[in-house]
Amino acid sequence: MRPNKILTPITLVVAVAIAGLFSAKIAPRAVAQLVAQNVAVPSSIAYRDTAYDPGGKVARIDEYVNEQRSNGDRVQIWSDFADGNRNRIIDFVSSGLTVSTNDKNSYTSTLGRGRARILVPNYLCTTIDYSSNSTTVGQEKVLGFTVTHYRTNGANEVKERWIAGDDLGCVVLKTVHQWKDDDGLLTGAVTVSEAVKVTPGAPPEADFRLPANPVDLPPSQYNKNIHPEQAENASLTRMDAIYQGLKVARASAK
Predict the structure, then answer these.
(1) C-alpha torsion sign, points 58, 13, 21, 175
(2) Strand pairing partners for 176?
(3) What pTM value is reported for the model?
């Protein structure tokens, strides 16, 4: 599993918590009819995450792509299969549905109530979390795009973000976490998430496509089937109960 993103890499656990995963009983065409158009700036953005230990040595590197349609749908794509096949988590935002799927087989995992909602243009710009202890550092450039640099000094970290403007839908193009110890002192450990390529315009439709005959599974079973080599994840097992509850809620709402 991966660290949490859609603005940062996203795990199945986080996908479950955000909106649930796409039900095999809900056709993609029906979802498309629910979503509004032209509420987001379409783009494909490739990111690289680098974690440094307290001594400055690279401890981990992750790479992934975040894509967004003009109707607000988003997908994060990464490859952690030995054969190069991709994992995808698709967030059908205005429909309140998310699907975790992959290019290797027909397994999906579903949650969510599937309640449609209306999105305002550039809705992402209204959801940015500016805490009370955030300060504005200033205007800068990242990959040619004008961004606003914010710094937040929290109990566990100093977090800096470089957020694009309306022309790119207020996506975060860079984040730096400087981690603190229990005494509130910086440890020297740092995590950097930064865009390495921005491609404006509509992303490939194939990246939002679901399997023709999906096999829907609870989160823990889905992960076990696509990654049998991984140890059992207790968080995913706990999420199975949420999966079952929302599945019942969707059925009763029909």
Answers:
(1) negative
(2) 160, 192
(3) 0.79
Q: What is the mean pLDDT of residues 26-49?
A: 66
Burial (CB count within 10 angstroms: exposed 0-12, middle 13-18, buried 19+), residue 252: exposed
12-253: CATH topology: outer membrane lipoprotein receptor (LolB), chain A (2.50.20)
Tell me the domain boundaries of the chain: 12-253
Q: Which two tokens stand for residue 227?
A: 């990654």
Distances (CA, A) of 44 to 12, 16, 178, 217: 21, 23, 27, 29
Express each pLDDT in 51-100 by its tens digit.
999 999 999 999 999 999 988 889 999 987 777 789 999 988 777 788 89
DSSP character for 35?
Answer: S
Q: Do residues 171 and 165 make contact, with C-beta atoms less than 8 angstroms apart?
A: no
Backbone angles phi, psi at 37, to 5 degrees: -110, 155
CA-to-CA distance for 21 and 28, rounded, in angstroms? 13
CA 37 to chain centre: 21
- Bridge partners, residue 153, by sequence: 158
- The DSSP output letter for 232 is P
Residue whose token pair is 């496509």: 209
- Buried b vs exposed e over 53-79: b needs ≥16 C-beta within 10 Å? eeeeeeeeebebbbbbbbbbbbbbbbe
